[in-house]
Amino acid sequence: MELVLFIGIPGSGKSTLYAQRFLNTHVRINRDMLKTETRERILFDACLRAKQPFVLDNTNVTRDKRAAYIAQAKQAKFKVIGYFLDCPVEEALKRNEQRTGKARVPNVAIYTMAKKLEAPEISEGFDELFRVKNDFTIEKISS
Known about the structure:
This protein is an alpha/beta fold. It has one domain: Rossmann fold. The protein is built from 6 helices and 6 strands, in the order E-H-E-H-H-E-H-E-H-H-E-E. The radius of gyration is 14 Å and the shape is globular. The two termini are about 20 Å apart. The relative contact order is 0.23. The mean pLDDT is about 95.
C-alpha cells in the first residue's frame, strides 16, 4: 500500500516519470485527465479503500496541498513516498514548447507554480523522499 506523491511545476516531467517507473504497478491520478477535483477525490478514496498503490500526478507545490493527501494516506496505513521533480523554469518552458494541444499549458502557469513551489521536506510525513533531476536521475533526500 503506497501513495507516490509527485511534486513539481508543469513541464518538470511528472507524467514522464510515471510512465517510466510506475505505469505497470500504480494507478495514476491526474487532475488534467480527470478534469475535476470531485473525480480526483473519488478515485483517491477508492485507491485508499481498495489498498491499491497509486501515484498522485499533480503539481502539489505547497505544503498545505500535500498535507491533506499525506494525512489521509497515513490514516489508511499507506507508505507515502515523495518525488520532487527539481526542474528549472527554463527547462520546463522548453518541454512545454514541445507539447501539443491541451497538453501545452500557458507559460504563465509555469511561472505561477514556480513562485508557489515549496520544496518538500521529509518532516512533512514522507516515509521516503527523492529528488529527480533534469536528466531523470534520482537521489534520495535525507532528513
